[in-house]
């Protein structure tokens, strides 16, 4: 396929607003110039197309989702414990210069070197194009989006509904925050009211500066799509955010691939990584990591068991057939086997990755059905290694500069 055609005006008028908009004009021309765009679609790292369609039939998947024996384990058995994030939690600057607050799923507020970065904000009740159907929240948002306070930049990993949320974007459009997004995603944002001058749209290994931060879009192994057609014309990305003293990594959605080592070598090591470890399945192994693969990605990025891993993309929505608690349990077991520091906050619980202790208790066990044979023994927290604090100078930017797209790497 050499390209794609936009929907006719009549069909566009009938589609839900949440479908967003197709890239056009100079945005589309820039997409077609991308070295990662070939034969009318974006390619995954190495030019290899990940298997984006489940290997089973629709009937097989429906049967798996509706199986009466496994279905009870895919949701919590009681209310998920949520930390009610308050202004007091966030008003005081982090003592170490870096604080993360996981809001559930892949939404994380990062306070890094005096700046505030919000990754993949999803405050909506459903990750769906319509408000009456689709995966529904399993826990409330820890605080209203309006109560979060000013944000310097919102970072979007890709355009799937559980990462790019129409209600959240429209709320943030009324602020003065900037948006850093992969190529093509800016068309959705403009369609929903974000002015073009507030959007920084990047290809892999391009960077933008926002105040004293450098944000770099890095490769991921996934796919895109919001509408009835999946034309693969918006890019997906992981992200590196570097300040004067700290570096962090957000995986977005991705299957495991060798490129994590390259990202770590070019931009790491990191004070913390936020790694997708949920919604995996043998039916789609190329596009979502298992907990063991997520821990392996963290180690690749770090070059060893240093820095803290924050598991993301789990607990908030039921998007796969595995038991609800398995992503947390699997990542905990993998991290402790590797001697890696893992942070396990409840949704809304702020923590500092370099602090003496981080949240480390398997809180989900109180509201999950125990596996046959009971829960594994809870071992003492793996302590942070002595080299957690590093001198990081590469990629620092002067405060107050005008954000711009620059080559990275």
Give me the CATH fold name: Metallo-beta-lactamase, Chain A
Uncertain stretches of 5 or more adjacent residues: 1-5, 381-409
H/I helix tally: 9
Number of domains: 1
Q: What portion of residues belong to β-strands? A: 15-25%
**Average of per-residue pLDDT values:** 87
Query: By CATH's scheme, which homologous superfamily applies?
Result: Ribonuclease Z/Hydroxyacylglutathione hydrolase-like
Measured between the Cα atoms of the first and last residue, the distance is 31 Å
* Neighbour order of strands in the largest sheet: 15-14-13-12-11-10-9-17
Number of DSSP E strands: 17
- Please state the CA-atom Rg, rounded to the nearest Å: 20 Å
Structural class: alpha/beta
Order of helices and strands: HHEEHHEEEEHEHEEEEEHEHEHEEE
Q: Estimate the helix proportion, in percent.
A: 10-25%
Described by strand count, sense and barrel closure, the largest sheet is: 8 strands, mixed
Instruction: Examine the secondary-structure arrangement and name the CATH architecture.
Output: 4-Layer Sandwich
Overall 3D form? globular
- CATH class reads Alpha Beta
Protein name: MBL fold metallo-hydrolase
Domain Metallo-beta-lactamase: 115-314
Organism: Streptomyces bobili
Pfam families: Lactamase_B_2 (PF12706)
Characterize the structure shown:
The protein is of the alpha/beta class and 409 residues long. The protein has a single domain (21-51, 59-368), classed as Metallo-beta-lactamase, Chain A. It contains nine helices and 17 strands. It has an eight-stranded mixed beta sheet, with helices on one face. Strands 8-7-6-5-4-3-16 form a seven-stranded mixed beta sheet, with no helix packed on it. The relative contact order is 0.16.
